[in-house]
């Protein structure tokens, strides 16, 4: 049996097994609703998740236990699934929906019966929808991407905020060549980029510029069916633009082709680069560590062949299969998506945000957050592009990251040829997922 078919067979078997097995709070031995969230233990964000859970317990009487895990989150879920001890609730990326559904880990959500479900953003609901049109999560948090720029550097080099990709290149060159920090040394870069392959970061980063240029990775051809589109000239143009930053203008921070976001956040904070295309979750951190007067947020400029567009992401509340507390699962999801739950997760302007942009349309973000830079992310969300509901987005993102990282690391690589080869691989992956 092929590896792909074996994977689907195991997933089907696991789905049947989990359906008949209560999770019991991941084997915790008590009646607490166990909630897993992808955050570092003891981080500000993990503490916000505990506040959310405690508020839910106070409102509902349902006891909770929050488990914060950052490293190897999916691997640990796999281990729990193999032991038939999945947690009751998982707050996880929207891009993980297809993978979790395929493996039989999540229960279907009846949108019509969810209290307050009609008050949630249509775009956010779309990110909770599987390729079969059914819903397998409840929207919790959304985000779009924008540019966080060293405003003090930009003013020192005498340039305006970038409105085109050409403007962006000029600003990056000035940050690289004109000593914007004034220390007399050529030790700054324009772009800071998490260009490594871990968790698919290279394609994750590139996607905002790909979408801003009208390109894409795959497109839907029918219900649950897709075809690869990375050989589209607009996608090629976006990847080539970034290769030029690495190889021609040399405006990217050293080591970027090996870095993940953890390292890249620090590169920006240490003043080693001045342009970071990223989500709003680091805004409060950078305000604190870099200085509020030193940074600004600017929309991703439209590409020469498309736009506007930017990566859309977020988290859903997933109701895990096999739980013996389905009523508690539903009540927690309803609370997390309610105005009260959203406000707790937003955490105002402080660090520790777990609701980046609210998904509940009854929330006035300006009333919750005083920092006007959040508005740029909110406005960008109107044209955000989510990962499509293929059965498993993870291998598509990873395969794309491997190819994109290669052309950034090897300046002799031909981007068009590389994207054509990637297109073939992605179509093969879609075929193996029976989504072609």
TrEMBL record:
The keyword Transmembrane helix does not apply. One of its GO terms (cellular component) is ATP-binding cassette (ABC) transporter complex, substrate-binding subunit-containing. It comes from the Bacteria. GO terms for molecular function: maltose binding. InterPro entries: SBP. The keyword Transport applies. One of its GO terms (biological process) is maltodextrin transmembrane transport. Keywords: Signal, Transport. Belongs to the bacterial solute-binding protein 1 family. This is Sugar ABC transporter substrate-binding protein. It comes from Nonomuraea rhodomycinica. The lineage of its organism: Bacteria, Bacillati, Actinomycetota, Actinomycetes, Streptosporangiales.
